Hints:
Elements: E1 2-9, E2 17-18, E3 21-24, E4 30-34, E5 46-55, E6 57-62, H1 78-89, H2 97-110, E7 113-120, H3 126-130, E8 135-142, H4 150-167, E9 172-176, H5 184-196, E10 202-206, H6 210-218, H7 222-229, H8 242-249, E11 256-260, H9 266-275, E12 279-283, H10 285-291, H11 298-301, E13 307-310, H12 323-333, H13 339-345, H14 348-353, E14 371-378, E15 383-392
Parallel strand pairs: 1-5, 6-7, 7-8, 8-9, 10-11, 11-12, 12-13
Antiparallel strand pairs: 1-2, 1-3, 3-4, 5-14, 14-15
Amino acid sequence: MRRFAANYIFPVNEPPIRNGIVETTDDGEIIKIIRQEDNFSEIHSTQFFNGVVVPGFINAHCHLELSHLKGLKPDKPGIAGFIEAVTTFRNDVSTNVDESIKKALTEASNTGTVAIGDICNTTATLKFKKASGIQFYNFVELFGINPNAASNTFDNGIKAYEDFKRHYPNSTSLTPHSTYSISEELWTLIANHIHSFPNEPVSIHYGESKAEYQFLWSGDGPLYDRYSKASIPFVPPKGLTPCEVIKKNIPAFRKLMLIHNTFASTREIELLKTVYPDISLVTCPESNLLIEKNLPSLELLTMPGVNVCIGTDSLASSSSLSLLNHVMLILENYPSLSFDIVIKWATLNGAQALDMDKYLGTIEPGKKPGLLLITPFDFTKMRPTADSRIIRLI
């Protein structure tokens, strides 16, 4: 048995507990929370820490396969320029992909991440995930605007999906990349698969750029230029919106994760909520600022009935996989948000989106969420400081 005490315990599923004590088994299962409030007294075998204790972090959206692209600097701005840079350097033989993945996983673990919703285009991360103490939901992602390549793309995706399923049978999905990067032919194959597996969540990049809306509506703009420059055969869309693409191709009432939402409106999300009641919005603040120099509206992120989560995206568009860094970035850019709201986004909400909330996301009896200490902590403003760091207690 172990006991951890701090100035505050943030269980997340209930208000912060002043001078609380968390009692756990030796392997990290929560036994109980002792509430002392202002009547602090020493209890034997208790370790006291200056700061706040929170559950382990849930990174709702990451691309571990792109870890070797850390520090990528696209020549052109916006999503089209970023895609071009990733495509150009993704297969760079001068970088050690395996070592980059291992290093990224070590960083994630050391900074308090206990679970990751990871986008997989290949099985490159599989052996490293199995050796990691982190839990994973693997979204095997398909993309391709070339209608002639749809069958081959789908078949390769199914092979990767089946490989992940063997090791992660309850936490693997086949999923589309975005509303703008998939041909009608490939959408048909993906949609048929999704219909056959109704219990698997769907993750899709959504509303990340204005170019997405322009391409779907008028068939031109930066994404059209990108595909044309790459000599990819494609049929330009016309008169579509991201919302309509989702509703057309993803079955109703499916658990749906929309990634980025940088330019999404509350109206579109309200429309989608009527079709997909279990919807999560995943914000990736550092990536959003790097690629599009913009963030989702506060109104969108505080919509009633919407589950907001936090993702780091890949190291190609984020400087680190530390969720605390992204929590701080959100607090800096949305000063009206309180820490207890944002820490819920980084823990319980992510666990709910990834179907892991039965055992992760909150500090409550029966769960094994991991315990993190955030120190130092500004108790006047009740939020971390620029000097705050994570210490893993469990």
